[in-house]
Amino acid sequence: MTLDEWIVTGSVGISSKTMWACLKNIDVTEKYGDKPYDPDDFSRCYKLVKKCNLTFPELYVISQKLPYWKPYIDNWQKLTEMYEENFKWGWDKKKSDEIGMYEYMQILREASDAIRFSNVA
């Protein structure tokens, strides 16, 4: 599936639209783009990557254009593994010593916000 096909037929949200816009070289400012806030948001980003066969270098473009995406792109593999495990076994199934995907994304969101709002006076 191409990026253009995906934007019309795929499951989209603001974070996956942000990824799409970066990859299509559309000027996305921090005002109009956003990051995935929870596993449900990530699911749409995950589906974009899978259905369009995106590579890590393509994902890296997103963090170059929008630096606040860096914590997500740097941890994409872990997020993918967590999402696939949750999808396979259920969202409430985890080892007692494991951090859940929602909590992990909260940590990434805090790191992302620190980058995004570091230049705000």
List its salient traits.
62% helix; 121 residues; 7 helices; mainly alpha
Give your account of this protein's structure.
This protein is mostly helical and 121 residues long. The chain has 7 helices and no strands. The chain has helices at residues 3-9, 14-23, 39-51, 56-65, 70-74, 76-89, 101-116. Helix 2 (14-23) runs parallel beside helix 3 (39-51) and helix 2 (14-23) packs across helix 4. It is globular and about 35 Å long. The mean pLDDT is 89.
So how many helices? 7
Strand tally: 0
Elements, N to C (H/E): HHHHHHH
What proportion of the residues is helical, as a percent range? 55-70%
Structure summary:
This protein is mainly alpha-helical and 121 residues long. The protein is built from seven helices and no strands.
